[in-house]
Amino acid sequence: MSGGNIIGERFVAMSFGESHGRCVGMLVDGCPAGLQLSEEDIQGQLDRRKPGQSAVTTQRKEEDRVEILSGVFNGFTTGAPICMLIWNKDADSRAYEAIKHIPRPGHADYPAMVKYGGFADYRGSGRFSGRLTAALVMGGAVAQKLLQETLGIEIVAYTSEIGGIKADSITAENIAQRYDNDVRCPDPAAAEKMRDAILAARRDGDSLGGIVECTTSSLPVGLGEPIYASLEADLSKALFGIPAVKAVEFGSGFEGSKRRGSENNDAYYMMKDGKIVTRTNNSGGILGGLSNGMPLIVRVAFKPAASIAKTQETLDVSSKSQAKLAVPGRHDPCVVPRAPPIVECVVSMVLADHAIRAGLIPPVLKKKGSA
Amino acid sequence: MSGGNIIGERFVAMSFGESHGRCVGMLVDGCPAGLQLSEEDIQGQLDRRKPGQSAVTTQRKEEDRVEILSGVFNGFTTGAPICMLIWNKDADSRAYEAIKHIPRPGHADYPAMVKYGGFADYRGSGRFSGRLTAALVMGGAVAQKLLQETLGIEIVAYTSEIGGIKADSITAENIAQRYDNDVRCPDPAAAEKMRDAILAARRDGDSLGGIVECTTSSLPVGLGEPIYASLEADLSKALFGIPAVKAVEFGSGFEGSKRRGSENNDAYYMMKDGKIVTRTNNSGGILGGLSNGMPLIVRVAFKPAASIAKTQETLDVSSKSQAKLAVPGRHDPCVVPRAPPIVECVVSMVLADHAIRAGLIPPVLKKKGSA
Amino acid sequence: MSGGNIIGERFVAMSFGESHGRCVGMLVDGCPAGLQLSEEDIQGQLDRRKPGQSAVTTQRKEEDRVEILSGVFNGFTTGAPICMLIWNKDADSRAYEAIKHIPRPGHADYPAMVKYGGFADYRGSGRFSGRLTAALVMGGAVAQKLLQETLGIEIVAYTSEIGGIKADSITAENIAQRYDNDVRCPDPAAAEKMRDAILAARRDGDSLGGIVECTTSSLPVGLGEPIYASLEADLSKALFGIPAVKAVEFGSGFEGSKRRGSENNDAYYMMKDGKIVTRTNNSGGILGGLSNGMPLIVRVAFKPAASIAKTQETLDVSSKSQAKLAVPGRHDPCVVPRAPPIVECVVSMVLADHAIRAGLIPPVLKKKGSA
Amino acid sequence: MSGGNIIGERFVAMSFGESHGRCVGMLVDGCPAGLQLSEEDIQGQLDRRKPGQSAVTTQRKEEDRVEILSGVFNGFTTGAPICMLIWNKDADSRAYEAIKHIPRPGHADYPAMVKYGGFADYRGSGRFSGRLTAALVMGGAVAQKLLQETLGIEIVAYTSEIGGIKADSITAENIAQRYDNDVRCPDPAAAEKMRDAILAARRDGDSLGGIVECTTSSLPVGLGEPIYASLEADLSKALFGIPAVKAVEFGSGFEGSKRRGSENNDAYYMMKDGKIVTRTNNSGGILGGLSNGMPLIVRVAFKPAASIAKTQETLDVSSKSQAKLAVPGRHDPCVVPRAPPIVECVVSMVLADHAIRAGLIPPVLKKKGSA
C-alpha cells in the first residue's frame, strides 16, 4: 500500500524513520495476543546488527536501545499495534550538505532526488540508508520469537561468501557458532580470510559484497499460497527490501537450472516416525510456492557497498558538470557481516505472516488462566 | 490478500481457473479508462505462450482464444474491471485419477494435498499448473500495451540459457528476432544447440531448465518505492509467481557480489541531450529500489520441468508405501521456450502498477473528444 | 485497492460486468476449501433478487442463471478463486444513446461522465446499475452458506418501511414468511399498503424509497477489530456499496442519540445455560466495534429510485443548455422489495470475512475422509 | 489489513497506543512530498479535541502536545512515513484494576475480554478508549492541510443536536463561529440549551448523545470509486471508526427514504460561470458513490456516553454473579462537544485518500526550486 513502507497481510509491519532523523522505528499490527515480549527479546538481534561492533563495520556509534511504545501490557502482547523504535544519537550530517547535488554512484541519491522533487531527507541516505534495516530487525525479532514459541521453528542465517571467498564446510554445529566471529561465517577458516579481504578492501578505499544463506528447521507443510503469495514470492519481496540485495535464489537456484529434471527433482520417502521427507532438498523446501515440510533454503546476494573512499566519476546535477567524488561519511566496507540477523528477521516476518494466514498461529496464543 | 491470487496495488490482477476446469482467466482492476483494447491485442502474446507450437513443447492442443467479458466498450477500456478468459478444450484428465495419492516429485502435489485437505483439483496440477501462466499473459498483455501507448516503454524477454548452453551473442538486432526460433533465443547458433539438447532430454525421458533474461527501453526515473515496494521487491514477487522459477537477479546479481565496489558502481555522466545516464548498468536500472533511468535488466532461472517420463522414487501417501512413478500426461520437456512472453507480461504488470502509483499514467488516458 | 471493485480481507470479492455488457460476475478469493457448493446454493438468493418477479419491480426479464466457472471440484470448494457469473440477455440499450449527454437526476451519470472522460459504458447505468447487485448476491450467497454450515449463523433481512409506511408488528414467525409477499415485509397488513403505495407512485410516474432491516441469530463474541475494521465500519462500507443506500444505523442508531446513557446502555446478565447476554439490544450486537454475542441489528435506508417517468429538469452537457427529461427504459418504481436478499448477502460477506480473520472458520472445513 | 488499525489506500494511516499506555500515535504513509508541515499545523485540531477544556468535558488533564518523529525535513514532508504521537501524562489507572472482571455496560469490555483472552490493556478502555481519537486527529490534520493547500477544500463539522435539542438556524456565518462555545454548535441559543442539558445529565450521574454534521466546500467532481470504494462507503467506514458512533447518513438520508423520487432527485442547472450544480443537495454531494461537485453533507450520530455514575446492572464474569456498578474514573458526560474536530479530520483523511487515487493531488506537490 501507498508509499511502500508496509509489508505483510496478517503480520503487518510499517517502517518509519530516517538515518539522520530523530529515530528509526517499526509498527507491527496483527501480532497475536499473549506472546511474552520485552525489549530484551528484540535487543539481542539489534545488537548483532548494530554499527561499530568490530573492525569490519562502520565506526558510527549507536547504542540502538529499543523502546516499546505500545501493544505490550504486563509483559505480554495485547493484540494491539506494537510500536518500537530506536533513537538516533550519533548522526553526523555535516558531510551530506556538500554533496546534496552530487549523486553517489551505486546509491539511491539520483532517483530519489528526481522522485521526491528535492524534498527527500538526503542526510546519510535518509530513508534509503542501511540504518533502516534496524526497523526490519525490530519487527522480525517479534516474529522470530512468535515462530519459536508457537511452532518451534528456528531460523538461522549466516555469511556463506564474501568477496568471492566461499565458506567451505558448513555444519549444524558451526552454524550454531556463526555469531562468534566478526563476519558471521560458520566456517572459521573462511571467516578469517573474509575478514582479511574486507580489511584489505577498506585499506584500498574500496568495498566488498557477498552472500548470506538462510535456512530453517523443518517448516510445517502448506505455508504459502499459490501464484502471487507463494513463499518464494513473499520471501523474495521482503528480502529485496534489504538495501544492497540484488539476487535471491531458493534451493538449487541458478545452479539447478543447468540440471536435468531427474537430477533436480527431490524423491519422497517416509521416515520411521511416519514423517514424509525428500532425499535431497533442491527445492529449498518449497514446491509450487508451498512449504513441503523440509527446511527452507534461500541465498541472498549483496552487492559491494556503494560508499567507497576511492574517487569515482559522477555528476553535479545542479551545475550539470562532471564531478569527482570520494564518498564522505562513515561506512561499512562490506554490509554482509551485519546482514545475517537482518535476513533472519526478514524471513521470520514472512513465515509468521503465512503461519497466521494458514491458521497455524491463532489470534490469541493461550487464554489467560487456561491450563 | 487472502488466497494469494491477487497482485498489484493500482493495476490489480486476480487470476482464476484450473488446468482441467472450465477455463483460465484474469480479472484486472485499475486499468485506466481510454486505452484502445481488443482481443487481438492480447492474442498475440497468448499465441507465443500456447502449447503445441513446436517439437520442444507439450503436445496438448489448445486454441487459447481470449474473450473479454467486461470493462471494454466501443473498443476502449472504461475504467471498470476487465475480465478475460480462455476456455479449456483439450484437457485429458484420465491419467490423474490413478496418481492422485502419489505425489509427483518436484510438483506441488504433496503440499497441496495437505494444505487443502484433499479438496484441491488435482487434475493436471489444477491451480498449480503451468497453464495458469495464460492468466499472467492476459493481464500482462494489457499492461504491456498500456506502457507502450502512454510512456513508450518496450519490454523484451528472451532465452539466454537452456540446459547449461548459453547464448553467445545478444544484440538489439537479434533480440528483435527472438520469436523466430522454437526456443526464443536471440542467438541462432545457440538456439540450434538448445533445441537439440531439449530433444535429447525428451528422448531420455528427461527434462531441462534454463534462464530467461528480460530488459526494457530506458525507464522513467523514480518508479518504485523504498523498502517493501521497491521495483526489485515487486518484480521478484511477481516473477516467483511463475511456476518453476527458483531464482531472480537484477543487473550484475550474484556475479556482482564477488566484485569490489569500485568495479560494480555505475558512474554517472550526461549525454549530449542532457539525459543523465550511467556508463555501465550493473544496477540493472534500479538503485535503492527506484528506477534510475537506465534499462531494466533481470534474469530469471527456471528449474528443469518436474514432469519426466523416467521412473522416479516417490510415495503412495494413502497406502504409505514407497512407489515408482513415470509421470503420465503430456508435458513440456523444458518450459523455457514458452516463458519469454510470460516474463514480458509479468514485468509489464509490475511496471504499469508502479507507473500509475507514481502518477505517470493518469486514470483517464485522454478525454474523449479532446485534441 | 485500485478501482474500488474489491472488498474483504480474507473472504475477498471482486465484482465485474456491466448492466448491458456481456455479463455480471463475482470472483471470490479466500473461501475455505471443503464447503459443499453448487449453482443451486446461489440460485435461490439470485431468484429473490431477479427482475420481473412481480408488479412492483422492473419488467426487464432476465433468467439470471448463475454459472460457476472455477474453484469448485467434485461438489466442494477447493480453496481456489470461485468465479461466478450470469449472462445478460434482455438488455435493451436503444434508449441510452439518445440521453448519453443528458445526465439523469439522482443517477451517477454526470460524475461518471467527468470521471471516466466519456469512456464509461453508459448503457443502463453501466457499472453503476442496480443490476450489479447480482454480483453482491453471488458472492454473498457463498458466504451465507459458509456461515450457516460452520457457525450456524442465520442472517435475515426484510422490508421495514416503504414510502413512510412502517411495518407494525415484526416477529420471529412473520420474519420467516418475509419472502411470501411482493414487498418482502414480514407484516402482511403493512405489506399490502406498501404494495399499493408503490403502484400508486408508478401510476404517477414517480418512485418510492424505504428501509431494510437486517438481523441475525446470536453472533459469536469478538468478531470485528477495533477502530477501522470494526464490524460497524466494515458492514457500513459494504452496505453503502449497494446503489441507492444513503444511511446506515446500528441498534438504537439515530434514535439512541436522543437518549440518556442510563436508558441506552444494555445491562448484562447470565442465562441459565451460562451464556452472557444483555437485557436490551440498543447496541445492535456491537460494542466497541466487536460483536458482543447478541444478534446484529442494522437498518439501511434506500432513497426513492432515481429513474422516474415524470419530467425532470436537467442539462444537456454537450450543448450546455437546460433540458427536460422523462427517464426512458424499464425501471423499478421502488428498489426496496428486491433489496432484502442483497442486504442478507452483503452482511454475510462481511461476517464471513471477520469470522475467518478471527480464526473461527479454518482454511479447510474438514479434511476429506476425516470423521 | 490485519488487526484493523490501518485505513486508506493511498493516504494510509496506522494508529497505535493505548489510553493509559505510554502514548497515542499515528503513522501516515503516502502523504505527498512537499507539503509545508509543522507540529503547529496539527496542534490546533488537537487542542479542540483535548480533554479538560470546559465544564462539559472530562476533567482528565492532558497537554496533548504532538511530536513529529519522522517524515518531515526542513519544514516539508518528504514522502516518507510521518510518525506523530502525544505522550500520556495524566492517566490514573487505579480504578480499573478493581473492575477488570466487571464489564461496564455499553463499553467494549466484555467482547474485548473474550476476544483477546485476557491480554488486552483494560486500563481506561485501553485500545477502545475515546482517547484514541487523538490519533485520528493527528492523521486527519495533515490531510486537512493537504486538501486546503492543493485543492482549496474546506471541511467543517459542528454539533447539530445534543440530547434531542436541535440547532435551529445554521448559516455559513455561524458555522465559522462553531468553536466559540463549549458544545461547538453554530446556533448560540441552542448551544446554551445543550450545555445546560449536559450539566443536568452530569448532575444526575447520567450522560447524553447527539449528532455531528459535516459539510465541505464544493468537492471536485468524480472523487470515489464505484461500489466498494464509493465515497459513502469509505467515509462511513472511517466515521464508524470513531468510538460511540452508531449511525451515518448522507444528504437527505433516512428522511429521504420517505420521499418520492420527484421530491428527492436534485435537478441540474448551469451557473453563469459554466459550473454545473444542482438546485437541491439531497444527495449530500454524492451520486453513485462519486462526488458530483456539490458540497458533501454527512450526519453522524453518537450514542450517549457509556460511562455513567448512576448504578447499573452488570456481571462479575470471574465469579459469574450479578453485580451493581457505578463506573469509576473521569469521563465526558457527552462526547459530542469534542467530536467536531475528530469528524473534520476523519473526513479529511478519506477525501485526501480519494483525491490522490483520482490523480488530483500529485506525489510531489511542487518541485523544489520550480516557479
Task: Describe the SSE topology.
4 copies of one chain form a homotetramer.
Chain A (H helix, E strand, L loop, with lengths): L5 E2 L4 E6 L5 E7 L9 H11 L17 E2 L3 E2 L2 E2 L4 E6 L6 H5 L10 H7 L17 H19 L3 E8 L2 E2 L5 H5 L11 H16 L6 E7 L14 H9 L5 E6 L2 H4 L4 H4 L3 E3 L5 E3 L7 E2 L2 E2 L5 E6 L9 E5 L4 E5 L13 H19 L14
Antiparallel strand pairs in A: 1-2, 2-3, 3-7, 4-7, 5-6, 8-9, 8-10, 10-16, 11-16, 12-13, 14-15, 17-18
Helix pairs in contact in A: 1-4, 1-10, 4-10, 7-10
Entry keywords:
10 helices, five-stranded antiparallel beta sheet, homotetramer, Chorismate synthase, AroC fold, 18 strands, 20% strand, 371 residues, alpha+beta
Could you characterize the architecture of this molecule?
Chains A, B, C, D: One of its GO terms (biological process) is chorismate biosynthetic process. Chains A, B, C, D: This reaction introduces a second double bond into the aromatic ring system. Chains A, B, C, D: Keywords: Amino-acid biosynthesis, Aromatic amino acid biosynthesis, FAD, Flavoprotein, FMN, Lyase, NADP. The first copy, chain A, has 371 residues and is an alpha+beta fold. Helix content of chain A is 27%, strand content 20%. Chain A contains 10 helices and 18 strands. In chain A, helix 4 crosses helix 10 and helix 7 packs antiparallel against helix 10. Chains in contact: A-B, A-C, A-D, B-C, B-D, C-D. The interface between A and B is large, with 108 and 109 residues.
